[in-house]
């Protein structure tokens, strides 16, 4: 079972609960706990709260928006250079320059224009953040991500046209459907394209995602408690 979010948790307790749940899911799946990266989804979490989890030894965080990350993380990273920052929300092409400069990993590559913008900025800045292609496994019109039927062609375009080194795939299953078929679909698309990394699973389903092969889980409310929702666009 996943930990139940509390509106006002101790984030270090939430972190330990999630770590324990990941380890238990790995044991059930016959996997090593070190094979799963816990990305603490820190949107709207203030720096003073993040400092507590950093002091507890957690170094991998995910933000949904470039502007929020720019305001929050440079000072923390100046004191803790080993911090790893992931962009886990949709990315506008006009924010590619800032995203490449700020993030170590980008989980939301999903269209040719963004791939081209990222390729230009990677070359210009001589930086290579690790890139995941987001797949809209539920074909939801309001959600970012390349459609499953288009994923193979898009991955080929990223690699051959733009020279991007895509390392894995990401998905967000529909909230009103069981996640297992979506995790299975993502695993199959990844295997077909020779990709080993899978970013799937959030606070409500991360343990299941681990059992289905997730290498990265993006967990926010189970660590930090419930937070106000993003605006409808949710873009970075």
SSE order: HEHEHEHEHEHEHEHEH
Q: Which percent band covers the strand fraction?
A: 5-15%
Strand arrangement within the widest β-sheet reads 7-6-5-4-3-2-1-8
Major sheet summary line = 8 strands, parallel
Helical fraction: 40-55%
Kindly report the name of the CATH homologous superfamily. Answer: Alanine racemase
End-to-end Cα distance: 31 Å
Determine the mean pLDDT.
93
The outline comes out as: globular
**What is the architecture at the second tier of CATH?**
Alpha-Beta Barrel
Indicate the CATH class. Answer: Alpha Beta
CA-atom Rg in angstroms: 17 Å
Poorly predicted runs of 5 or more residues: 4-8, 230-235
What can you tell me about this protein's structure?
- This protein has 236 residues and is an alpha/beta fold.
- It has one domain (11-224): Alpha-Beta Barrel (TIM Barrel).
- It has helices at residues 11-29, 47-55, 66-79, 96-102, 112-125, 151-161, 180-192, 206-211, 221-224; strands at residues 37-41, 60-63, 84-87, 105-109, 130-134, 166-170, 197-199, 216-219.
- Helix 3 links the parallel strand 2 and strand 3.
- Helix 4 packs across helix 5.
- The radius of gyration is 17 Å and the shape is globular.
